[in-house]
Design goal:
Radius of gyration: 13 Å
Distance between the termini: 28 Å
Number of helices: 1
Structural class: alpha+beta
Helix content: 25-40%
Number of strands: 3
Order of helices and strands: EEEH
Length: 69
């Protein structure tokens, strides 16, 4: 799986963890536990990429870690 940045936060109103993948617009998932949200995020990233391929859209390269000199 490509290594995209994932932001995870707790949604008090939904009583669940939510993840966002900033490099893939609209790519979000949720889960009742941290492990669930990570598993669901992995699934949704793969689905996002497959859908982009089917539609002929560009798939962003993961930014990766910044290296400082």
């Amino acid at each position: 799986m490509p290594k995209y940045e994932v932001i995870i936060y707790w949604s008090e109103s939904d009583n669940t963890f939510v993840s966002e993948v900033p490099e893939l617009p609209g790519c979000m998932a949720d889960g009742k536990t941290y492990q669930d949200v990570m598993k669901n995020t992995e699934t949704i990233i793969n689905e996002w990429i497959e859908t982009a391929k089917m539609l002929g859209r560009e798939i962003p390269e993961p930014k990766g870690r910044l290296m400082y000199a």
